[in-house]
Structure formats: C-alpha cells, structure tokens
Amino acid sequence: MTALSSPLLSGVGLRSAGGSGGGGGGGGGAAGKAVGSSLCELSEHQRGLLWMTSGVLLMVPDGTLIKLIRASGETAALWRLGLTSITLALMQLAQYGRKFPAMIYGLGPWGLTVGLLAGFNNMLFIIAIKLTTVANVLLIIATGSFWAALLCR
Q1: Residue 120: which pLDDT band, with cuts at 50, 70 and 90?
Q2: Nearest to 129 by CA among 74, 64, 75
C-alpha cells in the first residue's frame, strides 16, 4: 500500500539516486546516500519492524533507569513530567516566539484533553515501572493495540 509509505523516506531515495551521479566528492556523502536509498527500498513491513525495534530500544533503558531511581513513583513522575513540560515549553517558545501563547490557545479543548491524557499516561507508566518489572510493563504496552482491537469488535 503506497498510502502508508513515508514521503520523507521516498524523497531521500530520489535525492540520493539523482545526486550520486554528480562529482564523486567525499566518501561520507556517498555512504549517507547509500543508507538513504537502502532505507527507501525496505518494504512497508520491514520499515514497521525497524520502527518497532527502535521503540523497544528506547523504552527498555528508560524503564530500567526509572526502576533504578530511589524515589517513589509519584516523585519520579513529578520530576519527569515537570522537566519534560519545561523543556517542551522552552523549545516551542524558541520556535514560535511571541506567537507561542496564541498557538497554545489555538489547541482548544481537545488539545488540552490530549495533553492531560498524555501526562496521565506518562505518570501511570512510571508508577507501573515502580510497582512491577520492566518486562511486564513493556509487554502490556506492546499488546495494547491488540487489546484495543479486540475490545472494539
């Protein structure tokens, strides 16, 4: 299905195919272009597996580091949510400048709801890591879409 393929990945492949014929500059550029074109040649299934593996590789150390923190789940969640909120606000402020308040206001009630639910989800993730093993939490997260599909039938 081409509807789900990424135009960003396709564009990388097109640029690398067109740019590889010109000049033979440094070896680093050629290696980057080869990686971009091989990434475009992956099937949709293979790209999905690549994204899933990347997600697992990011979440396992995250869960393990949370488990090593000697603080209650609520305290760890407070610090994580606070620092994440401040970092995101500063990044958005740097990007939008004076338009930042209007951009936040423009999200409306649905944007506020999504933000609150994302924060609640983050808090529950940390508390779950503190209460059980990292493997159990990641297994529950990994099968979440399966349970949602099963309950929607």
Answers
A1: very high
A2: 64
Q: Report the percent of the chain where pLDDT is more than 70.
A: 75
The residue with tokens 């000049």 is 23
Question: What gap in Å lies between CA 149 and CA 147, rounded to an integer?
Answer: 5
Residue 14 has pLDDT above 50, yes or no: no
Tokens representing residue 91 in the block: 């990044």
Contacts of 30 (CB under 8 A, 6+ apart): 20, 24
* Model confidence at 46: pLDDT above 50: yes
> How many CB atoms neighbour CB 40 within 10 A?
19
Q: Distance between CA atoms of 3 and 44, rounded to whole angstroms?
A: 10
Going by the DSSP 8-state scheme, the letter that residue 39 receives in this structure is H
Using CA atoms, how far residue 55 sits from 10, 66, 67, 90, 148, in Å, is 22, 17, 18, 25, 19
50 closest CA partner among 35, 32, 63, 62: 35
- For the cut 90, the answer to whether the pLDDT of residue 27 exceeds it is no
